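Two proteins were folded this term; both appear here.
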Amino acid sequence: MQILENVRKGRSWRSLLHLVCSRKSFAGRKTPGGASMKKIFIILLLLTSCASGGTTFKNEPDGFRGLLWGMNVKDARDLNYVNTDPRYGGIKMYTRAGDAMTIGSAKIEKIVYQFWRDRLCSVTIAVHGLDNWSGLQSATFDQFGPGSQTGLEPESYSWTGAKTSIMIQYDEGRQTGELWIGSQTLAKEMQLYEKNKASHGASNGF
């Protein structure tokens, strides 16, 4: 809640990102250098909360590979359940049978589809190795234009549009890269859920 409180107080998004990435990971240990899949998700929620309305970027998507933001999990074919992240009341993770495991020249290690309240809210794409990172970064820049540097890593960029937020980042120490694409609308709903949950918990204490 310290992070969300800082959002409400109007701290700059760069200082908020620094705060997130200086904290311990959700596994309870330090995450030197880079961001885990869960940490990237938190960072993009912060970018969403700090974004001004009406912004856009080149080829801004409204989903990923034919699956639109907000699509019900029952309407998405060929999904394989992986696990549930307990945050925000539960975010269900799926992989998709038959997914093409390349983007540009990059070989993709995994693609994970995240559903909140059974609605598609985000997708995370992971690669391993510098060559695959370079291919993923190049393809992402070609598709969406040059991103804004976040200052988290030498190779960390973000895009914030009217419908979608994107972040891409490379962890040189682990030689892993991740691309996160998520719904602005559902990110805001998730923030509201967390705020209402915290307010309800506080009122129950008195």
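Next, the second protein.
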Amino acid sequence: MTESTAAGADSPGTPSGAPLDEAERLRLDKLRRSELAGWLQEQSRKAGVWPSLSVVAGLVQTGLVIGQSAVLAWLLHALIMGGQGLAELVPWLLALPLLVALRGLAAWAREMAGARASLLVRSGLRMELVDKVHDLGPGWRRSQQGGAFSSLLLEQVDSLDAFVARFLPQQKIAMIAPLLVVTAVFPFSWVCGLLLVVTAPLIPV
């Protein structure tokens, strides 16, 4: 098969050897991205509950940040506007380092859950690749470069780490965390809460 014939076969509806126009290239690029996104989502299911645990830990971390901000604001108001002494505020002052410690614990749990999810996905994908190569037989293996296959098993599979461990959980946290902030603000100032709701679409995602 000649190159022009291959090009024509790859682009149905166009003359043999004719270059793809911009609209066709955009359509094919969108199709490839959609297929890739579906494949990545399918691979992420191998992680089980760990991505969900990472999201929960991230939301707990967000809630602790809100709590820490509320305690700090209350302390400043009590000291500056209320004229209360430090002795009266000792329980609240002790709450601040406790909240900071809990935030660190939640961040650690989030990282550990994400790392575990990534490990499961990458291990499962490597096993699939090894099984596929075994099915292709020794003849196919001899025709391939060993370095390229090693790179596929190691470097290219490891490139999924950041996607599974951080991007997927953060994507869900980014959708839910603003709701937590708005929920915390509304009881104290509906005007500020309304402003947050109105300006939320302006925040780049």
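Residues 1-18 have pLDDT under 50 and may be disordered. Residues 90-142 form the longest helix (53 residues). These notes refer to the second protein only.
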